[in-house]
Amino acid sequence: MKKIITLGCDHAGFEMKDAVIAHLNARGWEVLDVGTDSADSCDYPVFAHAACKNIQRGVCDLGILICGTGIGMSLVANKHRGIRAAACSDTFSARLTRVHNNANVLCFGTRVVGIGLALDLIDNFLDAEFEGGKHERRVNMITEIENAEK
């Protein structure tokens, strides 16, 4: 897997962005930051879309999206073909969404988790590997549903 990850946030996520980037860099990841670049109010779909396009184009395999709750970003991300995004606020879910669901985008909210937990979510997400087996069958079912919706 490429050690490149895309990162997007809205104004609520901006407060945490620099710490997340520094943490990812310390882990050896190159970060493709698609914005936002300030705490001024903005529209999260713009940044979720830009990050997901990076994954769809094969520029990177994984993404992180940060907003107030993580939910809005995950809703937008999951509208993109091939994206499996999960809003997580606990480390167990962050790990299992990769192990069981082969998620490629982690979403979380700065109004839900603090910086310490956010970095733990990232570590659990990045350190986990897809288990395959019965889970692969289920992920393939998700892809079939996605491809049927045209």
| Fraction in beta strands | 15-25%
Mean pLDDT: 97
Structural class label = alpha/beta
Question: What separation lies between the terminal Cα atoms?
Answer: 30 Å
Poorly predicted tracts of residues:
none
Q: Quick one: biggest sheet?
A: 5 strands, parallel
Helix count, DSSP H or I runs of 4 or more residues: 6
> What is the share of helical residues?
40-55%
Number of strands: 5
Order of helices and strands: EHEHEHEHEHH
Radius of gyration: 14 Å
Given the C-alpha coordinates, what overall shape results? Answer: globular
How is the largest sheet built, in terms of strand order? 2-1-3-5-4
Please give a structural write-up.
Helix 1 packs across helix 5 (115-127), helix 2 (44-56) packs across helix 3 and helix 4 runs parallel beside helix 5 (115-127). The chain is built from six helices and five strands, in the order βαβαβαβαβαα. The protein has a five-stranded parallel β-sheet with strand order 2-1-3-5-4, sandwiched between helices. The chain has helices at residues 11-26, 44-56, 71-77, 91-99, 115-127, 134-148, and strands spanning 4-9, 30-33, 62-67, 85-87, 105-109. It has 150 residues and is of the alpha/beta class.
